[in-house]
User: What shape does this take?
Amino acid sequence: MNKSPGRWSAETETHVQFFDLDPMEIVWHGRYVKYLEIVRGVLLDTIDYNYVQMKASGYIWPVIDMRLRYIASATFGQQLKLRAEIVEWESRLKIDYLITDAASERRITRASTTQVAIEIATREMCFVSPPVLFEKLGVAPS
Amino acid sequence: MNKSPGRWSAETETHVQFFDLDPMEIVWHGRYVKYLEIVRGVLLDTIDYNYVQMKASGYIWPVIDMRLRYIASATFGQQLKLRAEIVEWESRLKIDYLITDAASERRITRASTTQVAIEIATREMCFVSPPVLFEKLGVAPS
Amino acid sequence: MNKSPGRWSAETETHVQFFDLDPMEIVWHGRYVKYLEIVRGVLLDTIDYNYVQMKASGYIWPVIDMRLRYIASATFGQQLKLRAEIVEWESRLKIDYLITDAASERRITRASTTQVAIEIATREMCFVSPPVLFEKLGVAPS
Amino acid sequence: MNKSPGRWSAETETHVQFFDLDPMEIVWHGRYVKYLEIVRGVLLDTIDYNYVQMKASGYIWPVIDMRLRYIASATFGQQLKLRAEIVEWESRLKIDYLITDAASERRITRASTTQVAIEIATREMCFVSPPVLFEKLGVAPS
Assistant: This one.
């Protein structure tokens, strides 16, 4: 299968809140996981396969791997641009992320998450993504 | 019914973590809600009616009212004593809380939460606490 | 002084995220404190006296009292309207909040927070709000 | 330099709280970052170089890289064992983590974090760990 980078991607913005800051007056590193989920939700909405549709399709998709690379810090009131892109889907759903300063496009964080399908009925992990994901993506299974 | 203050009470301790601090280097005021839930869980375990038993009994008990009074701040590494006590139960479950510095007993926060039973089957709010709560408390319904 | 309700008010919206849900699939009650802070930030920006300007003015304004009344629950993907209004300012800064469903205006949560000024230099609590607050509000001290 | 695995390691336990659960009734994947920080704090206390001592030494140590591998899920009331071990220190501080079920030792999560020193005075990142870290670890700089 021919991977087309950017074929399924989304972006949104968020505003750094006081409650996400640590004593260094920067966003605590663990809170970036929320930013990833915000833009992942926007991305999954574009393919009509977010949390509600996943459950309705008989699958949950837990995150099994997550990596974050912190390049710069974010501070109070800063407007952040959040980008997400599906980069793998055949056996697992891998999404890459880039968080930048919305004004300057300066890079702040790079990240990726990997999710696998678990069939709700059997609680078994799927070693190939279920047909519903291919349908939602509009591609043929390999 | 004769209310016996302290009849159902519990205490535990927690350690202030870095991720709960705000830029003032004190615990962000919203994170005290977690401390309340930690000691409420200990209290509800003592009457064998915590989240799991609530669901098994056919009821959920959402918080409908919460009040916090902040007296002093808590800082990194501080050991806190958390106390909770059931003060009402006949028509709703009201719990009072006191958070103190574990070493000095200096008061940090006072709080209360009020929960009501909702029957899972009907989604209806109960205007009198269901019999299971009285059984767990070992008291007769009024 | 003649209190004009609504003279200083603000509103914004937020989208319920997966990470704010609890096992009941509704927003965990403690996370509403974040919603309060989001709209309080918008409100304080309108009078140019948010966190950064507070510190620059020589004062911090910790929350000393917070009350929340939960009327209905909020669920995944719901769009919420957040409103905040300054209702007291002379000796303390009291803000009332109303959170509603953005589409139906159905009430979800009512809340209030009270903050007092602490002078950074002396660490002393102010029993009357400092002149800077009256300047920012454009009113004369009483 | 001869790396001695396990030379600097620590363990502690934590109890899964309701507020850390998601709608699947398991700990939301992002909240494991808190568990990492809890045991990292215990580990850094053993070498007397936790947040307070870091600042006093003139350095902050932001996390620049974090990886988590989720093996199994954790549920309400579960007791977790958290382990951390320093595995690199010469140019950066890398810590590996293992989270297991406290009773069965079943593996739940593996993770690592990498921190680098930034000199507070100059805001410059250190490409070699500052002497204070070697002193705290009781080893000679390479």
The mean pLDDT of chain C is 95. The longest strand of chain C covers residues 79-88. Chain C touches chain A through 13 residues (CB under 8 Å).
